[in-house]
């Protein structure tokens, strides 16, 4: 019986030298996109200036509600996904979930920015 630990390892258990790349890119992009999404989300309430908060279309108020919900709940989930991407074990076995979590952490910020630029008429 061989006691060498390198031969006893299963496939995917070796260290991934690029394990930090996806979480680092997601963190840098998130640091740039999150304030932009928060700023645009805060300014989007001005879309109701022409119609007043009580006379706006249902489509506009629904879009604003979805956007604010995405900022709050999606922001929390996005930060949690980014933290989870950093905390996954740095082995090749976890490379794909790490990349998915890093990518999903950016989704709420991108969704808010897309919603701001596609608000319906008031």
Automatic annotation (TrEMBL):
Superkingdom, natural source: Bacteria
Keyword terms: Membrane, Transmembrane, Transmembrane helix
Listed transmembrane segments: 20-46, 66-87, 99-119
Keyword Membrane carried by entry: yes
Protein name: Uncharacterized protein
Species assigned in the record: Actinospica acidiphila
């Amino acid at each position: 019986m061989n006691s060498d630990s390198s031969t006893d390892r299963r496939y995917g258990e070796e260290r991934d030298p690029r394990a930090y790349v996806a979480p680092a890119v997601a963190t840098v992009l998130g640091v740039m996109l999150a304030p932009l999404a928060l700023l645009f989300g805060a300014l989007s309430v001005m879309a109701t200036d022409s119609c007043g908060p009580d006379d706006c279309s249902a489509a506009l108020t629904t879009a604003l509600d979805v956007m604010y919900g995405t900022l709050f709940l999606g922001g929390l989930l996005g930060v949690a996904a980014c933290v989870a991407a950093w905390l996954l074990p740095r082995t090749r076995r976890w490379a794909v979930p790490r990349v998915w979590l890093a990518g999903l952490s950016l989704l709420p910020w991108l969704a808010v920015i897309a919603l701001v630029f596609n608000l319906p008429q008031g």
